[in-house]
Protein 1
Amino acid sequence: MKLTKKKFQTDFKNRLHEKFAIETVDANAQELFESLGSVIKNYISEDWRDVRRYQMENKNKTAYYFSIEFLPGKMLRSNLLNLGILDVVRDGLSELGLNFDMIAEAEKDMALGNGGLGRLASCFMDSLASTGLPGFGNGIRYKYGLFKQQFIDGYQVEFPDAWLQSGNIWEVRKAHEAVEVKMEGNVWLKEDKATGNFTPVYENPRVLRAIPYDTAMVGYENGQVNNLRLWDVEIPESEERKYYSINERRQVQDITGVLYPDDSTYEGRQLRLVQEYFFTSAGLQTIVKHYLKLGIPLDEIHTKIAVHINDTHPALAVAEFMRLLIDEHKMDWDRAWNATVKTMSYTNHTILQEALEKWPVDMVKFLIPRVYQIIEEIDRRYVEEMSKVADPEIVGRTRIIQWGQVHMAHLAIIGSHSTNGVAKIHSDLLKDVVLHDFYVLFPERFNNKTNGIALRRWSQISNEPMSKVLDETIGKEWRADASKIKLLESYADDKKVKDKLANAKHQNKERLAAYIKEATGVEVSPNAIFDVQVKRLHAYKRQLLNLLHIIKLYMDLKENPDLDITPRVFIFGAKAAPSYYFAKSVIKVINEVGTLVNNDNALKDKLKVVFLPNYNVSLAEIIVPAADVSEQISLASKEASGTSNMKFMLNGAVTIATLDGANIEIRDAVGNENIVIFGMDKDDVYAHYYAHDYNAWGVYDADPIIKRVVNALVDGTIPNIVREGQEIFDTLIKYNDEYFNLLDFHAYVAAQEKIDRLYKDQKTWRKMSLINTANGGQFSSDNTVKKYAEEIWHIVPGK
Ligand SMILES: *Cc1c(COP(=O)(O)O)cnc(C)c1O
């Protein structure tokens, strides 16, 4: 958009007066931020309205992305960048004597997600708008986002994230678009004698009012504004019932109260299922309502609407859509089923068994009786139809209802036309192992869409020093077209360019060092190697392997303080699910190792260990640009894709990695010589599974180095970890090290030694770093959503 500094300053000052009746000099950061946000929202609203109108008039096909998590982080900078007014606003504020960074800091992170899954959803929202695609988000407006993490005595302590307390400047409440969601009670089918149709009759249902809050998703300099719709719950106003007790009110409010702090294990709580149905039903109801306004027969709904099921949490969409078509709109079953399958598509995000959602039949029946009837009928017909053409045993294994449980992934696959994995290796594992039976029955439904990242946020917004070097070297086209970053590769041997990039990296490291000092009190040198592992804390991601190597390094340095290594700072960031004891113990032990080594002068500052509390998107934006080494060390086959691996390589970090998830595609992009790969690959891992031949105790007992390192967990080497050290020791030795940390240990140590050697040769290192950045463009989520659009949703750009 076109905006002069003058106009902006006038708008801004007026808004501040209007809202708070004060002058700029008297306003605090929160007041300044709210006024600024409100001005920006106003700038967006015209385009927002126009895009909506255009959508209606041109009847464009739209994709609806259903996700129980969105993790946008802060939105101010991103909106300004995408509107093309970041510099005007920054300069305008500066002339008024105001510091933009300080104002931007006042925005609360919108943390309605746990990690990768939610962040992906938000990267997709940005990319859909930025590629001009009509793609809308549908989720939940949790009152409390993911908990805030603090360390007390080295332990993780969780505090509520009341992000809405001072309001949310970006959202618009759309009360007139509220819908009712019915749950519980009894349902029976009443026959209409004249037509032979059955109508469900609801007795004593619990009726909830779903209120949408819309947030504009602004495209990058293209005038496109899409919509992220998050649902809140309210008590319905009705004539029959006006009085609700405090308890009843609370029970309703709980539905959108908290985001479950758990992104990969089965959450057994009933409330979670209520959440899943609530936002799925509300979203689908408005979609059907909107579609009917277009005046096209319901049979053709899939020509105008695509519904995407992001992981299984919204998989009830299949049955709920059927309910809407057959119950509310009187379609016959076969026509409704045809439309449903063509409308729905599904992304699988994990192969971890414990994370594949299953719900007890009794719970589903009680909470959503009519939907359960429909699921039963889908299942019955599935068995009947498929048994005619396929092996009955395979059909039996792929049923939706089995052993008293509803299998959400089965419902999603059977009720949709597309199932995709999120990296090549992951999609292959789905076809070959995890969902092999389904692949045999529906090979044409399976495909791969490798994840991506919103490149603008992870370069232009978070890494201005590097972005400037790119501008000076290859021009500015890369800012709009990520594929142009590849032009940087021809400067791989240009010392000047490499020095400039190294200089930018150093600036970012200084910024992070200052943050570390402020947040933890630990002093680190920007001349050390910054070695980073930031991601949710989970056994399969193997923060423990990193820790074991650090313990070894510590012991080596204690033995020989003159050991010739480049000083290294190991930086962690990770939240553990509050009930995940192993993960919390790993945090405690890393913190205690940190206290031990950071205060040991004998180590001559060659080793520091820092665990930054409360890892979130805003913290990632400070950490990622400052990393020299990116730790992507999950057990091969377990990390579906990973996306932080992409953020880091784009920012010039060298990856130390197993051949897992998108690490493999990163290796293919940068070449073997520009990444450090180690350890077992997925075939090695599966070979051990089939042979049942891994004996962790045997490895431990036969290997003095491993023994010494593992014993450090229990022999007092590390103070204050009696219980936690023993717990981790037992996980490794007594419970046979489920994620093969010990099997990969020596390969990992060797890979770390290789990192040290490579870093000493700065000429080579800087070239590696440059080549990583140069190949980051291919992981832009702009590319990813274009593939979804072409191959799954069949939508095209156009306002
Ligand atoms: C990118 C990102 C993730 C995902 O990290 P992985 O290493 O891919 O698991 C998680 N949390 C935040 C805040 C992120 O920005």
Protein 2
Amino acid sequence: MKIESLVIHGGVDGDERTGAVNVPIFQTSTYKQPSFGENSGYEYSRTGNPTREALEKLISDLENGYAGFAFASGMAAITAVLSLFKAGDKIIISNNIYGGTFRVLDKVFKNFNIGYIIADTTNLKEVKDKIDETVKAIYIETPTNPLMDVTDIKGIADIANEKEILTIVDNTFMTPYLQTPIKFGADIVIHSATKYLGGHSDVVSGLVVVNTSELAEKLHFIQNSTGGVLAPFDSFLLIRGIKTLAVRMDRHNANGKIIAEYLKERDEVEKVYYPGFSDHPGYEIQTKQAKGYGSIISFVLKEDYDYKKFLSNLELVTFGESLGGVESLICHPASMTHAAIPAEIRKKVGIVDSLVRLSVGIENSEDLIKDLDAAFKKSK
Ligand SMILES: *Cc1c(COP(=O)(O)O)cnc(C)c1O
């Protein structure tokens, strides 16, 4: 099956017992055990729930993995993956990684002596040089948030395989519709399913896909032991969201291109970060490893323009956290999503105060341009 069909019929397709075309919401915490020492395959919903399982099979199918796991947020998913490591281990991370991922490493896992090394993962030699015997994984996002740096997934996975360490990819920005890291050699794929996978800004959730039975066993043990599981109703919402992933992503891609080109022409804009521009340093790798360029665009306003006024004067585009919804969302990384990253690191990597990040939705692109036009005019 091709992915456009798989998003609708993958995982568990409907309900065998009744013929219902949707997987039922098994709103139950526990299951009756038919007799002593026997069970139906389910014992307790932290350990296993049929609605959650349908979602877990679906994301595993979409990512070409061995098994999937659903969590109560992207951060719960990331925390579960980081729980694979032990004191003394280190993880190499991309230098403009999602702020919350940096925070959990820097403020939580550091206390357990699990360390991190920051690298420019677009530079494979730098990554290779930073690996020593304490490094147990390379953790990347591509394109990165918010500067849209592109990392060569296969290049990273080849290095990791040679050193017998794990490759972990946060695939939130691309989704499996546009990019499937396991095909390039990644071991673990993570999603904040809150974003494009859910797609409707109505559920907070996280997903993990692993590529081997060994990792699946470990991840299930961690999921059951630490307990940050996704609720049955939220699992249902996510399955429903994923059914339209292909059509939504096609429109996101198309709108993203239109808006990126529009922004590039604006006098008020100093710089546009969009991996679909042929002069973007990661353009070739992006074109090789992904089926599109997505709809996240970051841009810097020129000094003479006030980003606060620009953001406050948007009407159709929603000023707020998050991304990947059907509605266009815009945020200010330095004070919002990336506030947890120390100011000097922010500046060094390019997350300046006048940088804004736009998640282009699936509205009519002319309406979006009209709204951006009006806000630019009021930003002087
Ligand atoms: C939002 C996000 C996360 C965190 O996910 P939550 O669902 O908000 O916990 C992790 N990685 C990326 C790239 C994100 O955009």
